[in-house]
Amino acid sequence: MSKEQQQQVPVVQTEEQKLALMLFESDKGAISYEVAGQVVKLSYTIVRNFLTKGNGKVADADLVQFIQICKFNQLNPFIGEAYLVKYGDSPAQMVVSKEALMKRAEANPHYQGFEAGIIVKRKDEILYLEGTFKLAEDVLLGGWARVHRDDRKSDIVQMVNLNEYDKKQSTWKEKPSTMIRKVAIVQAMREAFPAQLGAMYTQEEVGVVDVPYTEIKDNVQQEIQQNANAEEISMQGAGSDGADAIPAPQPESAPASGKSAQAETKQTPFDLNK
């Protein structure tokens, strides 16, 4: 057989070779580390299939960066502390949860707590309110946060403008006060602890659209549902007697108006000289 004929002969892989290749690809870039006493194992396949949101294809370079940042910062992506977002040809973005940032800040021995709230315009007055409660006539302008460290002469204060982050979509449309306060907290924490939090950004800051987080078990269940029961089953007439009817959800009762609600409307303006 000539060399040309040998080159044209297709390579047939045995089942053992296919299995070995599959195991190699699934373990590509694998790395293990401990977080709170639990072993976290990440690989290209795990991150790409279970820890990435969006419809874009993530490059190996983005996977390497994500895995290394998770390891360096002791993040556990399997409990939602970090994930990748990739849409189409847009660059991949790593998103870290606010809770993960707070956990790292609290681990610093110099951390002494924080205060945070919203900035509103009430008639002709600008008020800095703690929390997220405001009057119906108040105009929401932004959020503020103050972080205390016992090794700094001054507190770290951060104020953010609502217009820079509010995209009028999803949670921002429903809970703008909560969201802008969260942004202010995260930015103040990052400024207060740059060594621990400098390279980590939350979903609210990077401006990604809310995407429901998918657990590994949810992916498996979705595959089962897609491949099983493909034949349509008519449910006409089922439950006609009303016995199996699902009751409509009842609206949550409004919070009782009382001293607690009145007290929050009397919050004092935020004092920068505190």
The percentage helix is 25-40%
The number of E-state strands comes to 9
Label the structural class: alpha+beta
Strand order of the largest sheet: 7-6-8-9
Shape: globular
H/E element sequence = HHEEHEHEEHEEEEHHHHHH
Mean pLDDT: 77
- Fraction in beta strands: 15-25%
| Quaternary assembly | single chain
Number of helices: 11
Q: Major β-sheet, in short?
A: 4 strands, antiparallel
Give me the Rg, rounded: 26 Å
Would you write up a description of this structure?
A hairpin with a 2-residue loop joins strand 6 and strand 7 (125-130). Among the domains are: 20-96, no CATH class; 98-198, no CATH class. It has helices at residues 3-8, 15-26, 44-50, 60-72, 98-106, 170-174, 176-192, 194-197, 203-206, 216-227, 259-264, and strands spanning 31-35, 38-42, 52-53, 82-85, 93-96, 111-122, 125-130, 139-149, 156-161. It starts with a helix and ends in a 10-residue tail after the last helix. The strands form three sheets. Strands 7-6-8-9 form a four-stranded antiparallel sheet, with helices on one face. Strands 3-4-5 form a three-stranded mixed sheet. Strands 1-2 form a two-stranded antiparallel ribbon. The chain contains eleven helices and nine strands. Mean pLDDT is 77; it is low at 208-220 and 237-269. Helix 5 packs parallel to helix 7. It is of the alpha+beta class and 274 residues long.
